[in-house]
Design brief:
The structure is a homodimer. By secondary structure, chain A is of the alpha/beta class. The first copy, chain A, contains 13 helices and 15 strands. In chain A, strand 1 and strand 2 form a beta hairpin. In chain A, helix 4 crosses helix 5 and helix 4 packs across helix 12. The radius of gyration of chain A is 21 Å and the shape is globular. The interface between A and B is large, with 41 and 41 residues. Strand 13 of chain A pairs antiparallel with strand 13 of chain B, so a sheet runs across the interface.
Chain lengths: 420, 420
Amino acid sequence: MASEPGEPETALMIENNTKGLGPNVVAAVESEQASGGGAGEREARAVVLTGFGALSKLRVMKRSVPAPRRGEVLLCVKACGMNFLDLMVRQGNMENPPRTPIIPGFECSGLVEMLGEGVENFQVGAGVMAVMCYGAWAELACVPVENVFPLPPGMSFTDGAAFPVSFLTAYLLLFDIGRLREGMSVLVHSAGGGVGQAVAQLCATVPGVTLFGTASSSKHETIRGSVLHLIDRNADYVTEVKKISPEGVDIVLDCLCGEHTAKGLSLLKPMGTCILYGSSNMVTGETKSFFSFAKSWWQVEKVNPLRLYEENKCLAGFQLLPLLSRPDGARRVRDTMARLTHLYSKGVIRPRIDSVWALEEVKEAMQRIHDRGNVGKILLEPEKAPIPLMASDSTDTSEACDEEGEEDESECKEREPFIH
Amino acid sequence: MASEPGEPETALMIENNTKGLGPNVVAAVESEQASGGGAGEREARAVVLTGFGALSKLRVMKRSVPAPRRGEVLLCVKACGMNFLDLMVRQGNMENPPRTPIIPGFECSGLVEMLGEGVENFQVGAGVMAVMCYGAWAELACVPVENVFPLPPGMSFTDGAAFPVSFLTAYLLLFDIGRLREGMSVLVHSAGGGVGQAVAQLCATVPGVTLFGTASSSKHETIRGSVLHLIDRNADYVTEVKKISPEGVDIVLDCLCGEHTAKGLSLLKPMGTCILYGSSNMVTGETKSFFSFAKSWWQVEKVNPLRLYEENKCLAGFQLLPLLSRPDGARRVRDTMARLTHLYSKGVIRPRIDSVWALEEVKEAMQRIHDRGNVGKILLEPEKAPIPLMASDSTDTSEACDEEGEEDESECKEREPFIH
């Protein structure tokens, strides 16, 4: 895939400072700079984020992939999950954004292709799923073995790629932080998203749990079976919840941030917990990135700890990925994954897939998440061929849809996704 | 006990607005106004807080006690626990202070004297302990039956009065909110206090838990066996903890409030929890009450929820007493008490008693808590005779010790407490 005209070459320059990236990403990206490529290196297609900003910063390129390092596993990727966080990464809309160019993607499934030194608990050819700090959206990916998990019997690669981030997040939110127990009530925003649907399934495993969820009205029919009390995402949900449960709820799962955190706190019963696990309200347009982030930071209402004391409440923040690089965090993730695969094996939980896309369709796929069009997970499959475009489509179908009319003005092309 | 000269009579006027008080307190106090007293009413000695302010607002008086109402149990009180919160009540140093006059005290032990209508699970003469919203510091007390618990076999009245508030608080802090598990680390302030010592014993029930505690140096020798890493309460404990555990701790139990909350948050590991369960730093002098409260409110550093998100941390507030008046809260308290009495019966936990005082010594007892002189619980016993005063002592031995030299200037009389 050729670089677009007008794209500054510097966007493709590799910076030496690769702090915060997994060794796999650094190696893969650095290897492009090397003249000949080392022994055991192979070429593989990958989605590369060349700089922060609009969808045009995403390219599919061939990259050299090094052999796995000590403690790593090289995976032949069969499917990769897309999360809302990938949009925020693309925009650089986070506190410590990684250096570009980078291969995005936090989860995948595939076959073990090669073992790094010291890896003993996997065999070449085993089917696995993995969570990782970047690097998943590629044909080949190196992952630290602590973050690789065998696919439970009967789990497809599609399910395997859709499973880790959503279910780990949902489980840790509900049980580790929220202390969900029998008879409690939960409010989840974006109930139709990957985490929202995982939350719904996990809530159903506990007797007597009442689930409230906000989602676009257009999704209500599809997800009605999973959420007892569905509320339009534009409605005054505080009033709606209180109509049904005047005392409020025990757990609020807030992926929106901003004004919603104060609303969430106000909805809590005593001993309740409000957990901020995303900040999707920071993503509005395509490219506002840091300005949008800084604005949101100041707009969030600060909380007086004494209020929590007086009201017997708990306010928490949660991000899955920072846990991966800490020994105690990785252990917690492994323990949780063991519980989740057990639930999967018993048929109790199963990821909901929205749509599956080729790597080359990454922009369309990401636009779908941006527009909150998905119900369940959006996946990329390296082996999938893109759906041929209509003659009238440009080569850059996915730009923009920036409702505030910034940089990218072209219209967003609606196209029915391939449903798996 | 006669009222002191200069004490405005209005302090003893009963106000009709008794919102927020338990029915027993209201009834006991109102009954004094009635001319003859109803059928079944009895006279009993009680500590009465006649208004908010200095120790002089505490009196021992005879009060009429009504028969227990529906769902209540009348207790012949054998011992009552004193908590730091009682100081804050005396000062009116809380957001919604109760109306005075009021009988203070949140816990007691004793014998069931009479059953209100509908009470079936207790028999007259049974030994019990109870938590309650005021009213414990008296010879007789009516308590809603949900908050009364049988004394486990072998538990003395002294242990029974020292048990409920400290151990319920410690258990709910550590296990319900802090999610204590194997190998975690905990920092507790006021490690020598009633809750601090209960926290130490409960931490010891979980393998591999590391306990850090701050306490006055003078207490270190006495409590060294219960707290692995003891830190002087005036030391820079953040530095001291980080010397031993550079990554910080998993749980911070903060009963101090103010600047300590921000320090506690900074000491947390990712996925850690800082719980504010008291605000003893608000109590400095004797009578500053509301001003001190308001000042502290504004001095507490407010927390940006996004910081919790970025750092994977949890900030919680906890108060035991508001749970008692809610059905789900009372259920949680009962479940927790069942676990605690089981641990007591196995000899795993046992309240640490600092000293036992007569009702008439309530001022000296409270001064001891104010001065942070106690190790473990301070108790009052209605049947205990006060230790005779020396000829040189005034009748008002306990006034003041206000380090900021306000209203009450008399010197605090040191007296060795009777150790049970």
